User: Which sequence fits this backbone?
C-alpha cells in the first residue's frame, strides 16, 4: 500500500515540475526586458555597434554621429537622447525632425520601439568594429 501512495506522490511531484519547467521560462523572458532611461541609453550605445547581424548595423559615436549600414546602403545620421528616448536624425527622412524611440534592453539585445510600441529595430550590442582599410 505504501508503494502505491509513494508512486502517486512521485507522479504528482513530477507533474508539478513539468508545469514549472513549462511556465518559468516564459515568465523569465518577460521579466528580463527593461525600459532604459536616458542615461542608460547613452551608456548602452555610445561608442558601440548595434546590429541584427544580418541586415543592419549602427555605429554610435560619442559625438552624436551614427554610421549606418542598412540592407547594403551606407548612410549617416545623428543620435541624441531626449528624456528617456533615443532620437535619430536621418537626413533621408528629415533634416529637422528626429524620430525618437523608447529603448528596451534584454541582456545584450536592444529593442527600439516607436510611439505605437512597434519594434522598429531589434539588435545586439557589440564592441565598435575596427574601420575597414
Assistant:
Amino acid at each position: 500500500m505504501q508503494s502505491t501512495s509513494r508512486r502517486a506522490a512521485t507522479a504528482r511531484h513530477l507533474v508539478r515540475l513539468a508545469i514549472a519547467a513549462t511556465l518559468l521560462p516564459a515568465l523569465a523572458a518577460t521579466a528580463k526586458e527593461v525600459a532604459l532611461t536616458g542615461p542608460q541609453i547613452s551608456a548602452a550605445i555610445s561608442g558601440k555597434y548595434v546590429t541584427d547581424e544580418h541586415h543592419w548595423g549602427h555605429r554610435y559615436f560619442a559625438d552624436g554621429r551614427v554610421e549606418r549600414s542598412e540592407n547594403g546602403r551606407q548612410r549617416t545620421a545623428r543620435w541624441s537622447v531626449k528624456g528617456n528616448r533615443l532620437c535619430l536624425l536621418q537626413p533621408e527622412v528629415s533634416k529637422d525632425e528626429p524620430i525618437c524611440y523608447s529603448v528596451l534592453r534584454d541582456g545584450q539585445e536592444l529593442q527600439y520601439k516607436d510611439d505605437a510600441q512597434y519594434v522598429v529595430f531589434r539588435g545586439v550590442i557589440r564592441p565598435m568594429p575596427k574601420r575597414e582599410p
Observations:
- The first strand starts at residue 34 and ends at 35.
- Residues 45 and 60 are 6 Å apart (CA to CA).
